[in-house]
Amino acid sequence: MLPCPHIVLSEQAGSFGRGSPSFVIADWLSPRFFLMRNALKHKRGISPSPSGNRSFEPAQTPASSLPSLRQAAASCKACDLWKTATQTVFGEGSSHAHIMMVGEQPGDLEDRTGRPFVGPAGKLLDQALSEAGIDRSDVYVTNVVKHFKWSPAERGKRRIHKKPRDSDIQACRPWLDAELAVVKPKILVCLGATAAQSLLGKEFRVSRQRGQIIESPLAPHVVATVHPSSILRAQDDESRHSQMQAFVQDLKHIAQLIKKK
Ligand code: URA
What we know:
By secondary structure, the protein is an alpha/beta fold. It has two domains: 1-75, no CATH class; 80-259, Uracil-DNA Glycosylase, subunit E, CATH 3.40.470. It is globular. The chain has helices spanning 5-16, 21-24, 31-44, 66-73, 108-113, 120-132, 166-183, 193-200, 206-209, 228-232, 237-260; strands at residues 99-103, 139-143, 150-152, 159-161, 187-191, 221-225. The model is unreliable at 1-61 (pLDDT under 50). Helix 6 (120-132) crosses helix 11. The structure holds uracil. Uracil (URA) is lined by residues 103-107, 110, 116-117, 119, 121-122, 143, 229.
């Protein structure tokens, strides 16, 4: 016989501990939070449990600020990635930021420093923001997955980035919902296919739909563009330059939306 939801919840509340989203998420008793989650569940057609047999519903500890969320996320064990990562890399930026940018997952340097977008992709993002005239202090940066997923290189000590699975993304989703509920960005920017497809649906294609304003309950304006690391992987200088120009152009449109607000 299947356990009733209550039994599942209480077992998991015990096993997840304070650092899991289960303690945090239902604390947003604000109507906006529940409206948003319900809209999302409806839109995605999924059950309330983001990772199969795990439930993130029960909660007792208020965590309505970014510092308290960051602290709670530091001991998250909702998926297995914490075992091989150095630390949780939570989002960074002001709770008053108008723009939230969401990438895939921290990279090697982010994992070591505990800060998102500080490696090569982050440097390129900073440069593009500055070229687009967007003040970095108006941007909150985060990732759909908050632990570095990697495998050892065949030779040497390098840690090779591994794409997160849907289950990793879903297990981590409550943290992103929580960040959205606190920051309430005017514009949500998905950087790359992993973020875009996890937030806008599997059918979303960055190649076709980049720069379009997408209707979504997540924020008043939602838009996707390329991930800065894709520009770093360009074949040659010429294509790197043109990809960077296109990226800056997308960011300039975002800057205009902010001015209009
Ligand atoms: N790539 C990402 O998607 N996120 C980071 O924080 C760094 C690199």
